[in-house]
Structures are given as structure tokens and as C-alpha cells.
Description:
By secondary structure, the protein is an all-alpha fold. The protein has one domain (about 1-65). Helix content is about 65%, strand content about 0%. Helix 1 (about 1-30) runs antiparallel to helix 2. The longest helix is centred in the first third of the chain and has 31 residues, at about 1-30. The two termini are about 25 Å apart. Keywords: Membrane, Transmembrane, Transmembrane helix.
Amino acid sequence: xxxxxxxxxxxxxxxxxxxxxxxxxxxxxxxxxxxxxxxxxxxxxxxxxxxxxxxxxxxxxxxxxxxxxxxxxxxxxxx
Length: 79
């Protein structure tokens, strides 16, 4: 299962890179078309992509390190 967590972590990281590339490309196009960078607004799909990437990185990182394992405490003992 750790490979699945690592896979999620890598997919999330690649989504971050894709979102960053989209933003850089959009700013570059805006600059060369004569627009002002003050008018630049992030498209909704980029914002959703970043949120999805963040969630996948968090879930993948937790799963990879075993953060989703159930905690078993014996009765009468305190951890």
C-alpha cells in the first residue's frame, strides 16, 4: 500500500507542476499581447487543479508514511 501512497504523492506533485506551468504560460501570453499583469486573474480550473493537487499530496503523503493506520490501545493501558 505504500506504493499507492507514493503514487498519489507523485500525481499530486505533477498536478502542482501542471498548474504552475499553466499560470506561467497565461502570464507570458498576457504580457506579450500588451495586457497589464494587474488584470491577470487565475482561471477557475487552475484553482481547482491546485486544490486537487494539494489534497492528493496530503493523502499520498499520509498513506505513504502509514498515517492512516488504526491505533490500537490495549484496555487499561495509557499510551
